[in-house]
Every structure is written in C-alpha cells, then in structure tokens.
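Support reply, case 0932

Customer input (verbatim):
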Amino acid sequence: MASLGIIFQPSFPPERLRGVARRAEAAGIEELWVFEDCFRESGIAALVAALAATDRLRIGVGILPMPLRNVAITAMELATIDRLFPGRARFGVGHGVLDWMDQVGRRVASPLTLMREYVPALRALLAGEEVSVDGRYVHLDRVRLTWAPEGRVAVLAAGEGPRTLSLTGEVADGTVLTTGTSPAMTRDAVQRALAGRAGAGRDGEHEVVVFVNAAFGPDAAAEMEAEFDRWGFTGERRFAAAGGDDEVVRAVRELVGAGAGTVLLQSRSAEPDLDAWVDAAGRIAALLR
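Our regenerated output:
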C-alpha cells in the first residue's frame, strides 16, 4: 500500500506544528509535510522543528522554491538535516508561485531551464560529488559538500504543466502533485513523468506524491466547497477525499490506483478542530494498512 500522510498548512501558526506532529505520530500516520509559502513560514525551519519533536515520523517539505535558494545553500541544508535525522526527511523543490517570485525580485525568465540546471546539480551535490556548472542560472565552481549525506537522498520536483511534468521525470527522483489533482490528472501526470524519465534513459522507480484536500463527516463534501473556492479550483480540480471514513479511503485508493506512491491529506485552511482532523487521518491510515 502507498504511504499515507498529512500536510500542516502555513495557514496555522508555526507554534502549533510540534503538537500536530506529535499527535500525527501517535495516531500512526506515516509522514507529515510542511509548505514553504511566501510569506508565511520557512519550510526548512518547520521541517527541522517537526523532526526534532518526533521520533519516527517522516517529515517532508513541499516545495522549496528554486528561484529563492542558491543550490549550494539548499544542498548544505538538506545534507545537514539528513545527517541529523537519517532517512526521515523528504525534500521537494519547484518553480515557486511566479507572482511571489516577482514580489521578491527572483522570478526567472525560464523556470524550466532553472529546473533543468538546478535539480541535477542538487542531486550530484547530495551524492557527494564535486560539481562545476556554468549555466544560465546555476553557477558552481568545484563545489563539494564536506558533510554529504551518508545515504541516498531523493530530490522530488513539483510539476503541473505538461512540460514541467516531463522534466520532473527527466531530472528528479520523483514528482510532487499539489492539491486540485484528480485521479485522471494524476494518471496523466504519471505517464508524462515516466515518459520524460524513459526519454532521458533513466531506469529505476520514480515516486509520485499527491496532495488531496480532505474533510471528515456527513457535511464534509458541502464544507469543502468553500475551500475549493478559496483555492480557485474549477472542474475536476474540485476533487477531495471527503465524507465518512469509507468515502475518504475510496478517494485515496483512486489516487493510488492512478499511480500515486504517497497520498497526503490536506485539511481545510481554517480547519476548526485540527486535533480531531489529525485523529481522523490516523483512522484512515489504519484502514489502509
């Protein structure tokens, strides 16, 4: 069975994170992911805080915006985290929201070129290699990490459009699909990523992580409509795991059947009882085992 996890959104204050992480671990949830949304919460700081607050829970960050982060700094941070918490952290990078990148003067003319240069350089640095790159956006001159990870660290890349999805398969170890991705959209994304991977002559597995809005209870589907509106979702993007436990399990299994290796439940942005929501996600994890 695929891994089931939850997402801690930056619509909740940072001081709630450690308690939510501990509750998720106690509920038997396998992983928890945090966002790095401008200008709310740091993905790296939140990731480390959640790791330090728990013993077994895997913690992911999705996603770190590449335009904001020099690849050498990202590699240093990820390597340090992995050595402090071996095998427990998961890392995703992506284009970042373009309007936010504009606000801080970091929007690039070609996000695809940046990903094509950035992700292979990051993977090579994390593998302990000496890296020299003189690209359009990434420039490294004989850079090698002193304290590279002792094991393999996967680098996932977020994608949505057809060209980006193909590129995630070509250069990354996995693909992250954000909320508003239906099973049909997941199936199409998986096919595009795998085609990109095959076209690059790469073998081995390519993991797919899918975020899905989730709400529990008899009124969950109706309550989710306002959340869809908040995110601007239309058509098949208004897909959610909502309702009774059986209905939520069914939606998760649809995503797994479409190719998801990890499904991450995402609460409403203003979930009124986050503790109860985490406990409900724990029930779903138990039902799926």
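We compared this against your earlier run and they match. Two observations from our side: The chain is about 45% helix and 20% strand. The two ends are 7 Å apart (CA to CA). Please reopen the case if you see a mismatch on your end.
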